[in-house]
Fold each of these.
Amino acid sequence: MKSLTYTPRVLTGIASGGAHVPTVHLGSTLAASYLQAYFTVAVFMAAAVGMVGAMLGVGRLLRPTRPQDQKYISYESGVDPLGGWGQAHVRYYLYALLFVMFDVEAVFIFPWAVRLEALSTYGLVEMIIFIVVLALGLLYAWRKGVLRWA
């Protein structure tokens, strides 16, 4: 099997526009295939952008347009919108933070459970430490009363 290598050839004179500046020509098919791969990616990206633009354009042409003032009012879960900005209670953000914390815990526990035999005792001790730290955070939130809804 023949290996493909880069062998530049330096030409001067007319090939470089009349000046005596050396120009490098790629003497292998390796560089050509490399650039061809990028060209293929560029063609597919252009096709994807073109298809998205065509779909948005066709949708804009075909959709019905019936402007109504009520369509532009903010929707607040069935309640008439109030003027200004409404402030939510901090407790809702704490619930969201606790959810994210335990969701991330699940993301770490599943791969650990799959590879438990390969990780042996070290992996078990590390996961116990991880779960204890999260349990301490939950205990702290519980003691502070964050988990009470009312």
Note: Residues 129 and 135 are 10 Å apart (CA to CA).
Amino acid sequence: MPEISLRWLFLRISSYIDRESTSYILQTSKSNINLTTGFLIRKFRISKGWDQALMATKLDITRGSYSKIEAGLTDVNLSRLEQIAFILDVKLIQLLSFDPEQEVRDASRYLSVLAQIREKDRCIELLLHQIVELAHQLKFGRESKGNSNR
């Protein structure tokens, strides 16, 4: 899974928590549609583990031009959206429909899984420490037995 900065995630979540932000995002102004579509494209790209350079290559555009699509700075025509949907293996409607509450649920799930992974990592570290300690005890236990038998 690609590394997503927690700061970005928290900013994304906090921008969708209050109703005022949600209604603002759902307004049908061109810039908001571009921002929303760009966000969704980015989300699907990241879920595939791809970087912007790869997407730009697949679309036969520069990385800078692709970056502007994700940032919502470019008006993307329907044929380009269809091309992006095909490359990302999603339906076109998935790039145009946005559910901020689902994004919050997804982010919460992501944070929960991340916390579980960190807890498992701590358990693994403790177990590795115990293994090293036991191996150390076995090694010195054998040496001391060997020394006492002489």
Note: The two ends are 56 Å apart (CA to CA).
